[in-house]
Design a protein that fits this description.
The protein has two domains: about 200 residues, Alanine racemase (TIM Barrel, Alpha-Beta Barrel); about 120 residues, Lyase, Ornithine Decarboxylase, Chain A, domain 1 (Beta Barrel). The protein is built from twelve helices and 19 strands. The protein is elongated. The protein is of the alpha/beta class and about 375 residues long. The protein has an eight-stranded parallel β-sheet with strand order 8-7-6-5-4-3-2-9. A five-stranded antiparallel β-sheet has the order 11-14-17-16-15, with no helix packed on it. The chain binds pyridoxal-5'-phosphate.
Length: about 375
C-alpha cells in the first residue's frame, strides 16, 4: 500500500503552536510553563513534542515515569524534567539522567535521601507534592512537620518546587471545591517557602486551571491536554486545535443486501441495501470495541459515517451508503475538523483516553507547515 495511505496519526506542530499561544495568553508574562509530555505526549510523540515545546519556551517538561524521562534525555532534551510518579526500582536512572522526582511519600523521600548520601550527591532537586483534595498522591497537612524533618539535610536535598493537583478545574459547578484546593495549596507554600534554598517554584494548575482560575496561576503551570487541543469543557475546546489526526484509507468497499450482516457475531444486520467500507485499524490500534455499533463516527469527504458491527482487532467497518467514495479514499477517524468528541458521539469516554490509546503500531507523521 502507498505510504501516504497507511493508517497514520498526523501530528501538526502548527496546531501545537496555536494551543501554546492560547495558553500563554491566559498567563502573566513571567509565569513559567511546564509542558506535560507523559504517555508519548498524550499519544502523539514525546520526543518531537518535547523538543518543539522547548523551542517554544517551556521551562520544564513533565512525564509520569522515569523511563519516559530517560527517553527524552537520550533524545537530547536538556531542560529540567519532572517525574510525576518515580518508582524506587528505577532510582539509579533518575540520578544518572538528572531527572527531577515528584516526592509524595516518606518511603520514597527516605530512600532517595539515603541513596544520595551513599553516593555523595549534593543539592539534588526535588518537587514536593501536596494533597489538597484529589486524594491520589501527596502529603497531607498533618504530615508537614515530619516532611520538614526529613528535608533537614539541606546539603543533599534541594527543595526546588512544590505543587498540587486540581481535581475538577474544568467543572464550573465545582468552583467552591477548587477554591478550597487553591487555598490549601497556598497555605502549604507558606509552610515550605522558608525551607527552600532559592525561590521555590510553585505550581498548581493543569490545563483547566490555566483556562479558568487566574488566582491559581502561581509561579508555574502544568499544561497537558490543552497543548494537544482539548479541554474539559466545551468552552475550553472551542479555543484549541487538536494536534493529532488519526487517518486511514478505505481498504475495501462493498454493497450488502437486506438481511446481510457485518463483522463478528453478526452485530449489524442490514435493513436494506447498504455500502460498507472496511478501514485498516481496529482495537489493537486503540479504537476500543465500545465504539462499535454506532458509538463511533468517522468523517469522509465532508460527511460522517458510523461504525457498524463490532470493532475487530485490526479493522473496523463503517456505513458509507450515502457517500460518494472509492477504495483508497482517506477517512478521518478523529482530529482536526472532526474532534475526538465528535467521534465519541455518545461520550463513552473523554478525549484524554481516546488520544492516548492510539497504539504504537500506528505510524506517526509530523506536519510542520
Ligand atoms: C497529567 C497531569 C497534568 C496535566 O493535566 P492536563 O489536564 O492534561 O492539563 C498536570 N499535573 C499532573 C500531576 C498530571 O498528572
Amino acid at each position: 500500500m502507498h505510504k501516504a495511505l497507511e493508517t497514520r496519526l498526523e501530528i501538526n506542530l502548527k496546531a501545537l503552536k496555536h494551543n501554546f499561544k492560547v495558553i500563554k495568553s491566559h498567563l502573566k508574562a513571567e509565569t513559567k510553563i511546564m509542558g506535560v509530555v507523559k504517555a508519548f505526549a498524550y499519544g502523539s510523540d514525546s520526543v518531537i513534542i518535547g523538543k518543539a515545546l522547548q523551542d517554544l519556551g517551556v521551562k520544564y517538561l513533565a512525564v509520569a515515569y522515569i523511563e519516559e524521562g530517560v527517553r527524552l534525555r537520550k533524545a537530547g532534551v536538556k531542560c529540567p524534567i519532572l517525574i510525576f510518579y518515580p518508582q524506587l526500582e528505577e532510582l539509579s536512572q533518575l540520578l544518572e539522567f538528572e531527572l527531577t522526582p515528584s516526592v509524595y511519600s516518606f518511603h520514597f523521600l527516605k530512600s532517595l535521601h539515603q541513596n544520595l548520601k551513599q553516593q555523595g550527591i549534593k543539592d539534588f532537586p526535588i518537587h514536593l507534592k501536596i494533597n489538597t483534595g484529589m486524594n491520589r498522591l501527596g502529603f497531607d497537612e498533618h504530615q508537614f512537620q515530619d516532611v520538614k524533618t526529613c528535608l533537614s539535610d539541606r546539603e543533599t536535598l534541594k527543595l526546588k518546587g512544590i505543587f498540587s493537583h486540581l481535581s475538577a478545574a474544568g467543572m464550573p459547578e465545582e468552583k467552591k471545591f477548587t477554591l478550597s484546593q487553591i487555598k490549601r495549596f497556598k497555605t502549604a507554600v507558606k509552610v515550605f517557602e522558608a525551607y527552600a534554598h532559592e525561590d521555590l517554584i510553585t505550581h498548581l494548575c493543569n490545563s483547566s486551571g490555566i483556562l479558568n482560575y487566574a488566582e491559581a496561576e502561581m509561579g508555574m503551570v502544568r499544561a497537558g491536554i490543552a497543548l494537544y487541543g482539548y479541554g474539559n469543557h466545551p468552552a475550553e475546546h472551542k479555543m484549541l486545535k487538536p494536534i493529532a489526526s488519526l487517518k486511514a484509507p478505505i481498504a475495501q468497499l462493498r454493497w450488502i443486501e437486506k438481511g446481510d450482516s457485518v463483522g463478528y457475531d453478526r452485530k449489524f444486520k442490514a435493513q436494506n441495501k447498504r455500502q460498507i467500507a472496511t478501514l485498516p485499524l481496529g482495537y489493537a490500534d486503540g479504537i476500543s470495541r465500545m465504539y462499535g455499533n454506532g458509538n463511533g463516527i468517522v468523517k469522509l469527504h465532508g460527511n460522517t459515517a458510523p461504525i457498524v458491527g463490532n470493532v475487530c482487532m485490526d479493522t473496523l467497518m463503517v456505513d458509507v451508503t450515502d457517500i460518494d467514495c472509492k477504495e483508497g479514499d482517506e477517512v478521518l477517524i478523529f482530529g482536526e475538523g472532526h474532534t475526538a468528541l465528535d467521534f465519541d458521539i455518545n461520550q463513552l469516554s473523554i478525549p484524554y483516553e481516546l488520544i492516548t490509546r492510539i497504539s504504537q503500531r500506528v505510524s506517526r507523521i509530523i506536519i510542520d507547515n
